[in-house]
Amino acid sequence: MRVFIATMGTETNTFVSFPTGLDDFRRGLWVENGIEHEPASPWSAPAQTWLRRARERGWEIVESLHAFAEPAGTTTREAYEFMRDRILGDLAAAGEVDAVLMFLHGAMVADGYDDCEADLVARMRQQVGKRTRIGIELDLHAHIDEALVEAADLIVFYKAYPHIDYAERAEDLFALMARTLAGEIEPVMALHDCRTMGLFPTTREGPMIAFVAQMFEAEGKDGVLSLSLNHGFPWADVRHAGAKMLAVADRDIGIARRAAADFGRRFESIRNGAMLDLVSLEEAMARAALRGDKPLLMADTSDQTGGGAPGDTTHMLRAFIEAGLDAAVYGPLWDPLAVGICFQVGVGARLPLRLGGKYAPESGASIDVEAEVLFLKREAYQDQLSNERVPIGDVAVVRAADIEILLVTKRTGVFSPTIFTHHGITLEDKQTIGLKNLYRHRDVFRPLTREQLFVATPGVCTPDWGAIPFTRIPRPIWPLDGN
């Protein structure tokens, strides 16, 4: 067997002003000569998994581009078409292949292309014909409609939010593809539109834990091969937005349609109780005034780079300073200019420093502080899972108004407490931890904190769906239009 492997993706927030260009992909994941020796990360893991499994079977492997950018605004036409044409050109040069395996995001929007994934896979299908099987792994915060389903043979989404199962779902996709190529199964796929928008964590207390378990339980039974809930990405104004249920069955499209409808309706029945609970910044600050035996964690949800926000707004940090909080830490605040200044003056220096509010209109106002430089590190990282590192660029830690502030040169969210502890910041002696993140941190910070709040701060990733100026999403959609 000959298998072609590629990676391309970003998560596009169509409401931010700053675009995503080729340089953003090159600063993220950009591998042209083989993914095998790239450090393990959430973006390299799927392709690395397929390489290992293909080699174990003695299959011939043809690799193309592996590129992933941090979520941001609309991808430039030039960047998307360059990467798309590179992958299609490599596929043409490879000659006949039995299968294609690709890790795409699913919520990539470019100038002139509302659905980059469907555009790429449809062109690929036209190029390779029906004989070559195409399998795709997608982030569950994707957009999908029939165009992508018709172009692909197999689609598998993550099941976990926060995303900790990308390697496991890559294993699932490979196993299904191997069975397909062996003639054991003939996959067919069906979608059910849940007409839903929201955030539905799968590891917090609530109905999503049981729902995911039910999906796993049903797979491999009664003709059902795979089940995936596409949660959707709520900060994109595209016509195919919203949550959808995908079922993959063996040969019988009726089984796939019934399973998709069944599990789609199950999700619709629990969605209200599955939504992430949010509090106002004012309420969160009132709770922060109370001291406890462990820190209170406050997630600055609307400026989380994982949703395409700039990562340098100052609303929560300003509230910390104005409230006079002590024993507090805040970060990561994306501010390459401030980090560069800190490296010039060195550890121990004290200086006036302007923080945040620099990148885009969405960034808001900067804060002027008197800062002490506590820690500096080049090419820093945070840990993810047990064997992965997420680069965060150069780091400076400063103290201002009794708050330790983590400054970074690479836009990043929080994957683990090591984003602080690797950089001279202790957490056990803190009363308040402020994070620029949405939810990904929740489980790994839980043992360290007395309570975690998800704070609806101002920003382009606002969870106030009614405040987002949608004009193109499908209507009616829950919760904007009721049940």
Describe the protein in words.
This protein has helices at residues 22-27, 45-56, 77-94, 116-128, 146-151, 166-181, 207-218, 253-274, 281-288, 315-323, 336-345, 418-421, 442-445; strands at 2-9, 29-31, 60-68, 99-104, 133-138, 154-157, 187-193, 224-230, 244-250, 296-300, 328-334, 350-355, 367-384, 388-400, 403-408, 432-435, 451-455. With 483 residues, the protein is an alpha/beta fold. Strands 12-13-14-15-11-16-10-17 form an eight-stranded mixed sheet. Strand 14 (388-400) and strand 15 (403-408) form a beta hairpin. Helix 2 (45-56) packs parallel to helix 6 (166-181), helix 3 runs parallel beside helix 4 (116-128) and helix 7 runs antiparallel to helix 8 (253-274).
How is this structure best summarized?
By secondary structure, the protein is α/β, with parallel strands linked by helices.
Helix fraction by DSSP (H/I, runs of at least 4): 25-40%
How large is the count of helical segments? 13
Number of strands: 17
Radius of gyration: 23 Å
Gross morphology is globular
Overall mean pLDDT score?
96
Measured by DSSP, the beta-strand proportion falls in: 25-35%
| Main sheet specs | 8 strands, mixed
Amino- and carboxy-terminal Cα gap:
49 Å
Main β-sheet, spatial strand arrangement: 12-13-14-15-11-16-10-17
Give the helices and strands as they follow along the chain. Answer: EHEHEHEHEHEHEHEEHHEHEHEEEEHEHE
Give the low-confidence spans.
none
Q: Which structural class do the helices and strands define?
A: alpha/beta
Give keywords.
483 residues; alpha/beta; 8-stranded mixed sheet; 6-stranded mixed sheet; 13 helices; 29% helix
